[in-house]
């Protein structure tokens, strides 16, 4: 009888955990032919643990590398040496990584050093600018150069990989696993633990959900964003800003200076995934420099203004679910006020087709792995967005 195929999923941050959790569950559900194992670097600790608890995932290996004021050098070196030992112990047939973090690239590199095949979930995203987002864009490209299996969320991602001479046989269009996680977590009857959030009348107020964290936006660009938010609040009497403020002191300092004393601005601590996506589902408009929220919000019918000049997710721009506004304060104000005051403009974005998934991406990935290793003769069908 053939031995099970050992698939070791490696991740280290909250966004990775959110998007890999449904994949881990799909691999577990596949059954005996696949032995699913999980290793975390804990590049982020507390935020990672929140997601692990939510999805009931207990890592088989935990490097716990996070340290105060860690740099990219610190994360890279600790993860590389730690994963060397993990892979030696686990002897996986496939290392599965996600997206664009330092953990993603270093896990791929460590696997390459031991000649272990790599599968890349959310493969093929590109901006074309190696410094934007930094260091994520190069993490994606370098991981793509090492990977053997490429789980592209969209046809656009597939085309990016083909242009880089990736073999078509190794590419699977799956949709994005973040939609799987989202649909399993949002509930109409959800109650927030924070009384201030429960006190907001989401039906009658214009709720702007804001997140910022990108390195390239630190300093004056973020100040322009927050000044624009102040203008919006002063212009729209029913507008409310809910802003889970990133832990980075450089973010918090400017937020406090510009928005700290304003009525109808709720500056709160970063939220666990479950309350956050339920807050997203009840918000009116989202302003963010996050990548993942560009995928999640369209599934919830929420327009997104992206506080970046580039995006590795052009499908959302083309579909009309998001708009790139960068950090130009005047443009942010103009676009936000248009959406809040013009029902036709709002509806055009809110009702656009979601190009990112149907909730079945994780099952397609598990099926693709089984197909690659000869456990099944059926290659999974590609994800095609519904018109």
Automatic annotation (TrEMBL):
<keyword id="KW-0413">Isomerase</keyword>
<feature type="domain" description="UDP-N-acetylglucosamine 2-epimerase">
    <location>
        <begin position="34"/>
        <end position="369"/>
    </location>
</feature>
<dbReference type="GO" id="GO:0008761">
    <property type="term" value="F:UDP-N-acetylglucosamine 2-epimerase activity"/>
</dbReference>
<protein>
    <recommendedName>
        <fullName>UDP-N-acetylglucosamine 2-epimerase (non-hydrolyzing)</fullName>
        <ecNumber>5.1.3.14</ecNumber>
    </recommendedName>
</protein>
<comment type="similarity">
    <text>Belongs to the UDP-N-acetylglucosamine 2-epimerase family.</text>
</comment>
<dbReference type="InterPro" id="IPR029767">
    <property type="entry name" value="WecB-like"/>
</dbReference>
<dbReference type="InterPro" id="IPR003331">
    <property type="entry name" value="UDP_GlcNAc_Epimerase_2_dom"/>
</dbReference>
<dbReference type="Pfam" id="PF02350">
    <property type="entry name" value="Epimerase_2"/>
</dbReference>
């Amino acid at each position: 009888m053939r031995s099970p195929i050992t698939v070791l999923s490696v991740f280290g941050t909250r966004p990775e955990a959110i998007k890999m959790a449904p994949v881990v569950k799909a691999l577990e559900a596949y059954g005996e032919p696949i032995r699913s194992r999980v290793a975390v670097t804990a590049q982020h600790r507390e935020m990672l643990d929140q997601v692990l608890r939510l999805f009931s995932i207990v890592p088989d290996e935990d490097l716990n590398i996070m340290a105060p004021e860690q740099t990219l050098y610190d994360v890279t070196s600790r993860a590389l040496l730690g994963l060397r030992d993990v892979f030696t112990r686990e002897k996986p047939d496939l290392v599965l990584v996600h997206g664009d973090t330092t953990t993603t690239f270093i896990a791929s590199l460590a696997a390459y050093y031991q000649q272990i095949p790599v599968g890349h979930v959310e493969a093929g995203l590109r901006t074309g600018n190696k410094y934007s987002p930094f260091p994520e864009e190069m993490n994606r490209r370098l991981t793509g150069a090492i990977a053997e299996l490429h789980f592209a969320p969209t046809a656009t991602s597939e085309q990016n990989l083909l242009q880089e001479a990736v073999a078509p046989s190794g590419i699977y269009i799956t949709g994005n696993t973040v939609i799987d996680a989202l649909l399993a977590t949002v509930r109409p009857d959800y109650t927030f633990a924070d009384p201030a959030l429960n006190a907001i009348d989401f039906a009658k107020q214009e709720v702007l959900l804001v997140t910022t964290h990108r390195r390239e936006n630190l300093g004056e660009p973020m100040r322009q964003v927050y000044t624009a938010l102040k203008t919006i609040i002063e212009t729209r009497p029913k507008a409310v800003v809910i802003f889970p403020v990133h832990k980075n002191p450089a973010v918090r300092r400017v937020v406090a200076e510009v928005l700290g004393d304003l009525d109808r601005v709720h500056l709160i601590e970063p939220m666990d995934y479950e309350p956050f996506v339920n807050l997203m589902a009840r918000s009116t408009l989202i302003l963010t420099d996050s990548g993942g929220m560009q995928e999640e919000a369209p599934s919830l019918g929420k327009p997104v203004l992206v506080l970046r000049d580039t995006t590795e997710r052009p499908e959302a721009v083309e579909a009309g679910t998001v708009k790139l506004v960068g950090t130009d304060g005047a443009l942010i104000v103009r676009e936000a006020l248009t959406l809040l005051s013009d029902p036709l403009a709002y509806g055009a974005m809110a009702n656009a087709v979601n190009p990112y998934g149907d909730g079945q991406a994780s099952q397609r990935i598990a099926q693709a792995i089984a197909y690659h290793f000869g456990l099944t003769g059926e290659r999974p069908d590609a994800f095609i967005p519904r018109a």
